[in-house]
Amino acid sequence: MEVPGTQSTHADRVESARMVSMTTSRFTFLRRIGLPVVLVTLIAWSGSVSHAQNEQNQPPMLPGDFPPRVKKHKTPDKLPAVPTMTPVFSISAAPLGYGPPGPTYLGRNQNLVALGFLDENHLLFSFRAPGLLAREGDANQATAERQMRAVVLTLPDGKVESETVWTLQDRGPYLWFPRDGQFLLRDREGLETGDATLQTKPLAPLPGGFLAMRLDPSGNFLLASSVDPAAHFDSTNAMGTRKVLPLRTQIGPNPDPTNIAERLIRLESGQVLSTRHASSSAPRSINAEGFLDTVHEKLDQWSLTLNSFNGGSQILGHVESTCLPTSFFASDREMLVAGCTEGHIPKLMGVSASDRLLWQIETPIAIVPPLFIVSQDGSRFARETVVFKHSPGADTQTPWVKAVKGQVVRVFDAATGKVVMETPISPTFDAGGNVALSPSGKRLAVLNAGAIEVFDLPAPAPLPEDVIH
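Above: the chain's sequence. Below: its structure in C-alpha cell form.
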C-alpha cells in the first residue's frame, strides 16, 4: 500500500533556516520576550514549512516532562553503491514490452509505472504500452490521455499469467492495492476494482478533477479528493470545530484549488458515505474509525486526534515538534509522524494509538518529499527518496536532470524503526511506482536496471500488543 501524501503531491520544500529555535535555552528565551510573542512566532513559522513532508519528529513530551530514553537509529543521507541484500531472483522487464522513460520526465511528478503485490506470489506490473507513443507536446501535459500495459507475473518464474491495456485520462496516480488479491484502478470511467485476472468492474465514480486518494490500512474505506465545483457537500460536519493549523502561511494567492471535495467511500460497495469540503489538496489519513488530524496545542506541543466518521473525537497521542508535523496511519493502531527536534533535525517516529512512543529516527532533509510504501499487515514500511548532488533549479527541468544522483529505498520494521535493508534503484521515478512490499512485509520488489528484482526479507519484528489490539 503506497501512502499518498507520499505519492500525490511533492511541491513542498522544507527550509531549515526558518525553523523555530526550541533548544535547551528555550526557557530563558521565554522569560526574555514573553509567552505571547513565542506563540505568534511559532504559529507564523509553522505555516512557512509547508506540508513538512520531510520526515522529522521528536518524542511525545508535555511541559515539565523529561524526554524518554529512546535509542536513535541514524539513516545516512547517501546513495548506497550496492544493495545490502542480494535479490533471490530477477525478472527481465524488456521481454514484457517495458522501456525506461527518458530523463526529461524527472521533476514532473508523473506516475509512469506501477508495481504491486497481489499476494506473496503474484506481482502486478504496469507501464506505458509499447508502440503507443505520445503526441508531440503531450509529454509536458499532466492531463494527456495515455495507454498503459498491465501484466500479472507469477513468482518466482516471472510467467505472465494475465495481461491487458488500460486507457487512462492523465498522468496522475492510477493504481492502489487495498487488500490481499485486489487492486483499485482509476481510469476514464472512475474507480474500478480488479483481481489477478485483470478483469475489472466499476466501484465508484470520481467526479471532478482528481487530486489524491488515501486508503484505510484495513482496506475498508478510501478518501478521495478532487476539484469539483458541482459537488453537493454534507449539510453538517459531525466532527465539529477543529483547531488545526493551516499547512502553509497564506502569502499571495492560495496555491490550492478551490471547491475541493473530499469523498469517503466504502470499498466493499462503492457507497459514498460523506462528501465534505476540504481546504487542502492532500486528503487526511484515515483508519477504520475516522480521520487523523495533527492539532496544535501550544508552543511545540501537538496532539494526534482521531475524528470519528460517526462524530466525536479522541486524542490518540501527543508529540513535540519545532516544525509543523505531518502524520499518517501505518496500521489501524500505529501512526508515523514526521517533525523536527529541538535542534531542528528532521525526525520520523512511530507512535501507538495508546499514546506511546515506539521508536524515533533521525532522517536527512529531503529536497523532494520521500514516498512511503506500507505492507498490508502494517509490519513494515519502505521509505523511497531521491538523492541529489545539489538542489535542482526551479525555472527549467534541465537542472533537475543534472542535479539528480539517484534513488534509494530503505525498508524499516514498523515495530522498532530499524532499517532491514536498503538498495539503490535506477532509473529514478520521482513519483514512485517502482517499489512494492508484499502483504506480509517479507518480500520487497523493485524496478531496477531494466529488471524486477525481488528480495526475500527476514521475518518482521513482532508488533507490540497496543498496536495489534
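The first strand starts at residue 2 and ends at 3.
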